[in-house]
Amino acid sequence: MKSDIHVCAAWESEHDRPVYTLGDACPECGAPAVNSAPAPFNPEDPYGKYRRAIKRRNRD
Ligand SMILES: [Zn+2]
């Protein structure tokens, strides 16, 4: 079975720790929730998480 666990794309700025959800949006702040499986966030690329979130949205 495929894992559908997502993590808040903006957790670094909105929360003290990653917020996980099974949905497509963070239940706490409403930001897009992205697949938690890929590589960890790159601190040198603070906007990468937003680009990924936008990409995901455009695909839907
Ligand atoms: Zn959030």
UniProtKB/TrEMBL annotation:
GO CC aspect terms: ribonucleoprotein complex
Keyword annotations of the record: Ribonucleoprotein, Ribosome biogenesis, rRNA processing
Annotated gene: nop10
TM ranges: none
Keyword Transcription regulation attached: no
NCBIfam families in the record: PRK13130.1
Family classification: Belongs to the NOP10 family.
InterPro entries on file: H/ACA_rnp_Nop10, H/ACA_rnp_Nop10_sf, Nop10_arc-typ
Protein name: Ribosome biogenesis protein Nop10
Coiled coil location: none
Basic residues compositional bias, start-end: 49-60
Role: Involved in ribosome biogenesis; more specifically in 18S rRNA pseudouridylation and in cleavage of pre-rRNA.
GO biological process: rRNA processing
